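Example record used in the benchmark description.
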Amino acid sequence: MAMNGTGNTRGTTGPVDTRAEALVASYERAGYGRVMPAILQPAEPFLDLSGEDIRKRMYLTAAPGGAELCLRPDLTIPVSRDYLASPQAGRAAGFCYLGPVFRHRDDQPAEFLQAGIESFGRPDRAAADAEMLALGLEATAGYGLATPDIRTGDVALFAALIAGLELAPAWKRRLVKDFNRKTNLALDLERLMLGGNNARPEYQGVLAALAGSDPKGAHALVTDLLSIAGINAVGGRSVAEIADRFLEQSALGASTKLPRDVRGLIERFLAIGGDPDESAGELRALAADANLASELAPALDLFESRNGFLAARDIDLKRIKFSTAFGRGFDYYTGFVFELTDPSRTGDPLVAGGRYDGLLTRLGSAEPIAAVGFAAWIERLNAYGAAS
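Model output (structure tokens):
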């Protein structure tokens, strides 16, 4: 796959990291082609798709013509964009990388190295998920950590649960989007229980009027009003995004109260965790109790199949700390997610990733494309190696 980028494996100033180079070379031997996406990227995909944590840490700039650009804060979106622009788009293909990413971090360098893999178009999703975790474990082993803590989750299970509930579509979208932001999710559940709109009082009349209107007409009205007011963007969001959020608030405010038993079901679901095989049994029981067996079946089947592929790769399932409540803070994840951490410390993951089947469509693909990958934080792995 041709890349028209300026990425490199030395950061922008530092020397070659020999262990990181060896790690990526092992991914090349495993069949993943090495790529180097451009460091300077269009800002819009990251602002739209990454999530709040990335948005507030990005380094933004503008081209002379006004286009908003950024230093890439991660490599998943750049590799995905280049894949879609290549002749391989739509076909199964896997890529690996090593290069700098840029995020504001208190008391830490804004530029740091990431290595990783992105795998596109594989129909065998469960096997691909298991392969990503296995290759992630090889990364920590290469730095001397043979038995990291393994934490996993599955966004698709939560999405399937919410899809099966009797909730307004706007609330379903909101709860799934909030899954990676636990404070927001808790607040939304509380708000649903109360059945009220927590928007500012002066907005209530406008929101109530919009709640029952034609969605396209309401969107056009809000967009025009913002444009007339001279508002082009706020907080990295376009006028269209601001209008979407405003209309979502009107829909949420019109919703009825969440029955207590439904909230109890959601909380019961989010409390399931531990051994993945045992968790599968608990999830089957919950689905049966809630009459949601058919709604949850596809996600549960994939979950159980993944467990089988993990075991086939000699990954001890009892080492895995699975939780239905675990997410990674990126809006584009749609399924399996994982993090590998140093068991002797608390803090940030050494390796992390997951499945993002919806991202390629949101980046412009006419057809859905399965996608999964992970990133390894080289500075954290190096720090572990130096301390061990």
